[in-house]
Amino acid sequence: MPDNNELNYSHRIYHNDPIKFKNLINKQVKVVAKDSSVHHGILYTVDPVSESIILIEPVNNGTYKANIIVGHSVESMDISTCDESIDTKLPDFFIKKNKILSDDELLIKKELIKNLLIENRFPVEENNNGILKIHGMLSIHPPYDFDDCFCTNPIIMTRIHKILTQVSS
């Protein structure tokens, strides 16, 4: 059983309550900093190790302002009184914006990638769905971008990504 000295010197991460942090996500919170400044906003995320916080403030017309508050300066964080005019449902800030390719453009891109893979001595097979496969280890799905590669071997994945950069540039 640990004595009191061990508890006093252990890192604060072992005393954090991750469930509390998780329950505060997407809620309106009030953060009081050690310099007595007060920050209001919707809690976007908390780093569980450093306890740094990202607060999102709706500005107007669907625009948002992000405030990053470093963990060592946070004195307290509590759910603030709910302002009904503020929508706490935040948009996905990291939406992938895909360029929609026509069937012809998709076919050209697929053939280009297929030829590059063959030139680099990868045995490429194509199934009925247009998915390119290499020895059943790697598959590249339409529209044949980085995020459309699936592989369990990181070395092969890195080599394929290098080849795909030739297509995208």
Automatic annotation (TrEMBL):
<dbReference type="InterPro" id="IPR009422">
    <property type="entry name" value="Gemin6"/>
</dbReference>
<dbReference type="Pfam" id="PF20417">
    <property type="entry name" value="Gemin6_C"/>
</dbReference>
<protein>
    <recommendedName>
        <fullName>AD domain-containing protein</fullName>
    </recommendedName>
</protein>
<dbReference type="GO" id="GO:0000387">
    <property type="term" value="P:spliceosomal snRNP assembly"/>
</dbReference>
<dbReference type="GO" id="GO:0000245">
    <property type="term" value="P:spliceosomal complex assembly"/>
</dbReference>
<dbReference type="GO" id="GO:0005634">
    <property type="term" value="C:nucleus"/>
</dbReference>
<dbReference type="InterPro" id="IPR046857">
    <property type="entry name" value="Gemin6_Sm-like_dom"/>
</dbReference>
<dbReference type="Pfam" id="PF06372">
    <property type="entry name" value="Gemin6"/>
</dbReference>
<dbReference type="InterPro" id="IPR046856">
    <property type="entry name" value="Gemin6_C"/>
</dbReference>
<dbReference type="GO" id="GO:0032797">
    <property type="term" value="C:SMN complex"/>
</dbReference>
<feature type="domain" description="AD">
    <location>
        <begin position="75"/>
        <end position="169"/>
    </location>
</feature>
<dbReference type="InterPro" id="IPR047574">
    <property type="entry name" value="AD"/>
</dbReference>
